[in-house]
TrEMBL record:
GO molecular-function term, one example from the UniProt record: ectoine synthase activity
Family statement: Belongs to the ectoine synthase family.
EC number(s) recorded for this UniProt protein: 4.2.1.108
Keywords associated with the record: Lyase
Source lineage: Bacteria, Bacillati, Actinomycetota, Actinomycetes, Pseudonocardiales
Pathway of action: Amine and polyamine biosynthesis; ectoine biosynthesis; L-ectoine from L-aspartate 4-semialdehyde: step 3/3
Catalytic reactions of this protein: (2S)-4-acetamido-2-aminobutanoate = L-ectoine + H2O
Task of the protein: Catalyzes the circularization of gamma-N-acetyl-alpha,gamma-diaminobutyric acid (ADABA) to ectoine (1,4,5,6-tetrahydro-2-methyl-4-pyrimidine carboxylic acid), which is an excellent osmoprotectant.
A Gene Ontology biological process term: ectoine biosynthetic process
Organism this protein belongs to: Saccharopolyspora terrae
Protein name: L-ectoine synthase
Classification via PANTHER family: L-ECTOINE SYNTHASE, PTHR39289
Amino acid sequence: MFVRDLDDVTGTEDDVETPNWRSKRLLLAEHGAGFSVHETTLQANTVNDFWYAHHVEAVFITHGEGELTDQETGKTYLLRPGTVYLLDGHEHHQLRPTTEMRAVCVFNPPLTGREVHDEDGVYPLITDR
């Protein structure tokens, strides 16, 4: 059994912050679950371009509101608490929170915690724990 609290992560190397977002990485590849779990906070009125070319991501919005745009189709979805979305086709996407927005994110394959977005918003595939 594994138990970890957000307070256990805050201020550690598993607490990653940029000007637009902060990711608290609760469950990582090293924990052996086959997926990773993160709490991500996105700053209001920011534009965030992401593309997970090597990962499937499920996102559950817990706080705040914003928009998700599929960059390939141009379709935009409203996001609010209780909304879930799944990026199972490696879609290029853009998040535009209108308020501070918090979400629980699940990645498969799991992230190691060492990933950094490249210029296209892609996380590299790191397979070692």
